[in-house]
Design goal:
The structure holds 2 protein chains of 2 kinds. Helices cover about 50% and strands about 15% of the residues of chain A. Chain A has 20 helices and 14 strands. In chain A, the strands form 3 sheets. In chain A, strands 4-7-6-12-11 form a 5-stranded mixed barrel. The two termini of chain A are about 40 Å apart. By secondary structure, chain B is of the alpha+beta class. Classes of the chains: A alpha+beta, B alpha+beta.
Chain lengths: ~600, ~375
């Protein structure tokens, strides 16, 4: 894998060792510059070393499910929260259950506490429910004559709500219509809409004005419509979606309704309220979800969901049924924790096995939602009881002791290398230094980028990495020395020793990289974090040896100090016990040999 | 140092060397013994799982002026040897987590803590906590390890050969068993740090074995085209040839870890550092040892069972017998058989001049191909 690519690069480095070195130095300078630019000069430290923030979440009793708060559900919830705050395994967040109904979430210093709060506190109970009727989001004292099936309003343009009602009928003026050359996006005129990937092309014709236009005003109008039970209608009228607080209350109520019961719910921005039928497709039917940037239809950040095969079937059935109905009953609502995030209209059966939620997302919110949907809903809903800072679990003395001990160990390594390799030790130490700078800067930059945090085990792992990195140089140096023992002079020895040393380095580093890759893909939590660090140091090892150590060796081989085998160069043929005939020749005319 | 350099050269040429392969039975025996001790230790003492795996009790005290590290000592003595994790909370309160306590056991600890910290007992809030290293993490880690083992064996079988893959796997299991066993014997608590340490060893052990195998593969490339050495002898030469590298690498890898273990953990008395660096120290040492003393001899053992290698060994034996008979006559005994002979032989051709064998045949023999270019 890496071998052929590196192999191609190596001859180039032989030709221009200086250029390669400059390249590495530029990369280093760039990383250091980036570090200063981003303003983070130290890697983020884990809870054990730096402390952080601790949340205590309390599980909420759910009406109708008295035994919901049990050990199994609590453990499942802790597992899901762990994955949400620690998706890549590198943030060093910790989640544990406490008592019978609490979960503690610890996040290291410097993590966005607000985001974390949202990540762990959101239940993310997702459901696709058919819309039975809908009306504007405020309290309805009496049945309004013309609530619209769609506000046209959305996260972006709440003010257009009223206009949207009419605008909808004239596609030209529609907010989204103008921005969508592909009519396929029309069914998504709502702020947030589900579109099926398959739908985009075929749905072109029936979409914008076909059935929707004429039927819109009348359909929702009789709010006490035939199939809406009066009780629900009353609830709908009483529902107030205008304030955040009332929406939250409504959401909680809706979230606690059984999936098989109809429910009244608010749009998450308060612009609409709905009576929704039983859940057609559940969140558990979503196999994965991710945030993507939709540049084709200009919808900005959207969340793309893939259904399980069963979920795909259900989704197709539900949309097939809905497509034949008159608005607004051809809409379905995507309900997240009791709030409607999206209410797209359906024009035909959607078989694609996937769907998207679009509109009004920032990158962050889309990623968060995708993340939550992928890892699944919490089996319980939680309330944040307490939020407090915590100090480092290990205390400063551990880090301090570790640093002192590490420094002593490193000093011993330096002494050993200098004693054994003499001049060559400079190459080894310079390479280790480059490797250290690269590792440090990359880890530091990864802090803000992906939330990477270093804990004590990772620091120890980095210390072991010194050994593995140094091994690459040692393998190479021993090869060179073997070549010199064969009677070669330094320059050919450096080039001849390289292909063999290179193979050894690549083969052995590949095993390490394999371990890192497999563990990173398969595992979760701290093991995954470890795999990330291992992979990073392994790749850096290869980079440093190929782009720094080897070119540096080539350059140094041209220096007299090394090529003449000065007794302090570590390459003195005599000391290396080169073959006797050579020793004699060398002793006679050491300088002519090089020419 | 020049002496060391010379030894390196003599090792390289095979003038001196330790007979790793010949004495393998001793080392196998030693390893089996250590492994048995490790397994028995594991069986008898078991692993002392930390709070991250087993859960425990968490005590929350009211605002106190006691520092976290002081509280930690007190908590550990109150808990009777269990490890305590102490964190200071925002309002000056302490959160003390102690592993291995259930509801009943936590009551006396709570009282003891209250006394030590000089706060009323009723203000110390006690709850049980679950593991932060949940089952899911553990299960997925096992799954990942399983997949990795399969892939690495496949890779080694393709890149090298199946015998080496088997030997590397045995060496790996050997290293991990010894480390876990010693961990059980010492009785340190297993923390996530320990697990990370074990994973590091897993990577290192394989890495080291692969480096040694790489040189073995190179040395044994054209083995059937010569009749001087059996596979075992070639393997032995190859180990000796890379011995300097093995020693240097091990020293460089072990020195910092030794610093952590003996200075950081021992002298400065840092708790968690001990856990990790002990696992690392034992594992790294075992990893370096097993590559040379276990993995390579195992490959030689497996390899010598091959009919091809058996035939080779026969040819070598026959040739040696003939040479010995001849050597007794008059010629120098160099061609006798000893490993050292080869290098001397090469030198000899250069210095002494032509001898009864064509020099070109000697030159290519027993040498890695790279040098012929």
């Amino acid at each position: 894998m890496a071998a052929p690519k590196k192999g191609r690069r190596a001859p180039a480095s032989q030709g221009h060792p200086g250029r390669t070195l400059i390249l590495v130095l530029i990369a280093m300078a760039g990383l250091i510059g980036g570090m200063f630019y981003s303003g983070t000069l130290t890697p983020r430290l884990g809870i054990d070393l730096a402390g952080g923030t601790s949340f205590t979440l309390a599980a909420q009793n759910q009406p109708g499910k008295p035994n919901a708060i049990n050990e199994t559900n609590m453990n499942t919830a802790a597992g899901i929260m762990e994955r949400r705050v620690n998706g890549l395994g590198v943030t060093e967040s910790e989640v544990q259950t406490q008592g019978s109904n609490h979960i503690i979430v610890n996040i290291p210093k410097g993590t966005d506490a607000k985001q974390a709060r949202q990540q762990v506190g959101t239940t993310a109970q997702l459901g696709f429910r058919p819309v039975l009727t809908t009306t504007a989001g405020t309290k309805t004292p009496e049945p309004k004559p013309s609530p619209s099936s769609k506000g046209g309003a959305n996260g972006k343009g709440k003010g257009d709500k009223a206009a949207g009602d009419q605008a909808k009928n004239t596609p030209g003026t529609q907010q989204n219509a103008s921005s969508s050359p592909t009519p396929g996006s029309k069914p998504t005129t709502q702020g947030r809409a589900v579109t099926d990937s398959l739908k985009k092309a075929p749905s072109a014709k029936p979409t914008p004005s076909g059935p929707a236009k004429p039927s819109t005003p009348p359909a929702p109008t009789p709010p006490g419509g035939a199939d809406i039970p009066p009780a629900l209608q009353k609830q709908l009228n009483a529902l107030d979606c205008s304030t955040k607080k009332s929406r939250a209350a409504a959401g909680e109520k809706a979230a606690n309704t059984k999936p098989s019961d109809p429910v009244v719910a608010c749009k998450d921005d308060g612009s609409q309220k709905y009576v929704l039928g039983p859940v057609g497709v559940e969140g558990t039917d979503v196999s994965s979800a991710k945030a993507v940037f939709d540049s084709q239809q200009g919808q900005g950040w959207i969340v793309q969901m893939d259904f399980t095969s069963e979920g795909g079937k259900k989704f197709a059935d539900v949309t097939g049924k809905l497509a034949s109905k008159a608005p607004p009953q051809n809409q379905f609502a995507i309900v997240l924790d009791g709030a409607v995030v999206s209410d797209p209209r359906v024009n035909e059966r959607l078989n694609g096995g996937n769907a998207t939620i679009s509109g009004g997302f920032t990158q962050q919110s889309a990623e968060d939602l995708g993340n939550m949907l992928s890892y699944g809903a919490l089996p319980l809903s939680f309330k944040i009881d307490d939020e407090t800072t915590v100090t480092a679990a290990l205390g400063g003395e551990q880090l301090h002791a570790g640093l002192i001990a590490g420094a002593i160990g490193l000093a011993l390594v330096v002494i050993y290398l200098v004693a054994y390799y003499r001049g060559l030790a400079l190459v080894a130490l310079a390479s280790l230094g480059v490797s250290a700078v690269l590792t440090y800067t990359i880890m530091t930059l990864l802090g803000p980028a992906i939330g990477f945090a270093l804990n004590l085990p990772a620091v120890c792992g980095a210390i072991v990495a010194i050994g593995i990195t140094a091994d690459s140089f040692i393998v190479y140096f021993e090869r060179i020395r073997d070549e010199i023992r064969e009677g070669r002079t330094l320059r050919p020895a450096v080039e001849r020793g390289w292909p063999r040393a290179r193979r050894t380095i690549l083969v052995s580093d590949f095993v390490s990289f394999l371990a890192a890759a497999v563990l990173f893909i398969v595992t979760v939590g701290k093991v995954q974090g470890f795999a990330f660090t291992l992979g990073l140091t392994t790749v850096l090892d290869v980079v440093v040896v190929f782009l720094f150590t080897k070119p540096l060796m080539t350059l140094l081989a041209r220096r007299k100090f090394f090529s003449e085998g000065h007794s302090w160069s570590g390459l003195d043929p005599k000391r290396l016990g080169a073959k006797p005939p050579l020793r004699r020749r060398r002793g006679a005319a050491p300088t002519t040999k090089e020419a | 140092m020049s002496k060391l350099g010379t030894i390196g050269a003599r090792l390289y040429r095979g003038e001196v060397g330790y007979d790793f392969i010949g004495k393998r039975k001793i080392w196998y025996g030693l390893s089996i013994l250590i492994t048995i001790v490790a397994i028995v230790g594991l069986g008898v003492r078991g692993l002392n799982m930390g709070i991250e795996f087993s859960g425990g009790a968490v005590f929350t005290t009211p605002n106190t002026s006691v520092s976290a590290s002081e509280a930690q000592h007190k908590a550990e003595s109150a808990a009777g040897g269990h490890q305590a994790v102490v964190q200071k909370l925002g309002g000056g309160a302490l959160r003390i987590q102690i592993s291995g306590l259930d509801t009943k056991q936590s009551v006396p600890v709570q009282e003891e803590l209250a006394k030590d910290l000089n706060v009323p007992v009723k203000d110390v809030n006690t709850q049980l906590v679950g593991p932060s290293w949940g089952e899911q993490i553990a299960n997925k880690a096992w799954l990942g390890l399983g997949i990795f083992m399969v892939l690495v064996v496949l890779y080694l079988a393709v890149a090298f050969e199946w015998r080496m893959a088997v030997a590397a796997l045995i060496a790996l299991i050997h290293d991990l068993t010894i480390t876990v066993g010693i961990y059980a014997l010492v009785g340190f608590e297993v923390t996530p740090g320990t697990v990370i340490g074990l994973l590091t060893i897993l990577g290192y052990s394989l890495y080291d074995t692969v480096v040694v195998f790489d040189s073995l593969k190179e040395a044994s490339k054209d083995i059937t085209k010569q009749t001087r050495f059996t596979y075992g002898e070639i393997a032995n030469r190859s180990i000796n040839g890379t011995l300097v590298r093995s020693i240097n690498t091990t020293v460089v890898a072990l020195l910092p870890v030794a610093g952590l273990l003996f200075v950081g953990g021992g002298v400065l008395g840092a708790g968690m550092l001990n856990d990790i660096s002990l696992a690392l120290f034992v594992g790294l040492a075992a990893g370096a040892y097993s590559s040379i003393f276990i993995a390579t001899p195992l490959v030689a053992d497996l390899k010598e069972r091959e009919p091809q290698m058996k035939a080779l060994a026969k040819r070598v034996k026959a040739k040696r017998a003939a040479a010995a008979a001849k050597g007794e006559g008059q010629e120098d005994a160099q061609d006798g058989a000893a490993d050292a002979a080869d290098a001397e032989d090469d030198d000899g051709t250069a210095v002494v001049g032509p001898r009864r064998q064509p020099a070109s045949r000697n030159r290519g023999r027993g040498r890695p191909s790279g040098k012929r270019r």
